[in-house]
Write a structure and sequence with these properties.
Blueprint: E1 2-5, E2 12-15, H1 25-38, E3 40-43, H2 50-60, E4 79-83, E5 109-116, E6 124-128, H3 129-134, H4 138-144, E7 148-152, H5 154-157, H6 165-168, E8 185-189, E9 191-193, E10 200-202, E11 209-212, H7 217-231, E12 237-240, E13 247-251, E14 255-259, E15 268-275
Parallel strand pairs: 2-3
Antiparallel strand pairs: 1-2, 3-13, 4-15, 5-13, 5-15, 6-12, 6-14, 7-8, 7-11, 9-10
The structure holds fe (ii) ion.
Fe (ii) ion (FE2) binds near residues 93, 97, 99 and 257.
Length: about 280
């Protein structure tokens, strides 16, 4: 297996490996080490059926729990991230986030496999939250140190949320199922050691983060907005370009990500799984 780091400070492409073939413990260890080091790893030119995608995901770790988005038919753990060529609904997941950060134990990683990839646009942007933690201005660090962020899925996934009842009336092709369970909250430290590497990282961002414990909303929201501006500066961002047949795995514990548009008139389809942990 050959690892080629991207020119940016993080992200790498991994070649000379066939993920539809033999999946050895040694290869698994190498993949996880590459993920921990590079945070986003891309395997181009893979031929993965849904069976193969599930097999690779399970080999890395147990599946995470995916709420609010229905799995594809006959699969419990695969979500279709899709958009029709003529679709007019707003782009899905165009805001910065960490997948399912509102869960008590958010998933360690997400796998996304490119099936129909437009000829332009549709990049996924990633922001390195270990570098962002290292680069925190002292005053900002002082304001967030020891603070716990309140995470919730309510802004996107409550019935009155972005993907709620109004969105159900749009032409969105993704099967999103908003419900009242999105109002649940769970808090995580804003700044904490990465559970596997111990490196200090910022975890999550405003959006799924709706407040800060023991801080009035009119103080917390501007602080979270200032923090987001820091977290997603150009120097921390890698813009990933997709190819058909490419599997990308990212470490949800060390990066933020977001979708982008720019492929009007073209369909896009990727299949996604989440990995709970690498135990
Ligand atoms: Fe996401």
């Amino acid at each position: 297996m050959k690892i080629t780091p991207k020119t940016k400070a993080f992200g790498a492409e991994i070649s000379d490996v066939d993920l539809s073939g033999r999946l050895s413990p040694e290869l698994r260890e190498a993949c996880i080490n590459a993920l921990l080091e590079h945070k986003v790893i891309a395997f181009p030119d893979q031929k993965l059926s849904d069976d193969s995608l599930e097999r690779v995901s399970c080999w890395l770790g147990p599946f995470g729990h995916d709420p609010f988005i229905a799995p594809i038919p006959d699969r419990e753990h695969i979500i279709a991230v899709c958009r029709g060529a003529e679709e007019k609904a707003p782009i899905f997941a165009e805001n910065w986030h960490t997948d399912w950060s509102f869960q008590a134990e958010p998933p360690a990683a997400t796998c996304l496999y490119g099936i129909d990839i437009p000829s332009c646009g549709g990049d996924t942007w990633y922001a390195d939250q270990i570098a962002a933690a290292e680069g925190l201005p002292k005053a900002l660090k002082t304001m967030i140190e020891g603070k716990r962020a309140v995470h919730s899925a309510k802004l996107p996934y409550a019935p009155d949320g972005v993907y709620g009842e109004n969105d159900r009336r749009s032409d969105r092709t993704m099967d999103i199922r908003a419900d009242t369970s999105a109002h649940a909250t769970f808090s995580h430290p804003l700044l904490s050691p990465h559970p596997q590497t111990g490196r200090e990282r910022l975890f999550g961002c405003v959006g799924y983060i709706i407040g800060i414990e023991e801080m009035p909303e009119d103080e917390a929201v501007p602080l979270l907005m200032e923090l987001l501006a820091h977290q997603t500066q150009d120097e921390y961002v890698y813009q990933h370009q997709w190819q058909q047949g490419m599997l990308v795995i990212w470490d949800n514990r060390s990066v933020l990500h977001k979708a982008t548009g720019g492929y009007e008139g073209q369909a896009r389809l990727l299949h996604r799984t989440t990995i709970q942990a690498f135990a």
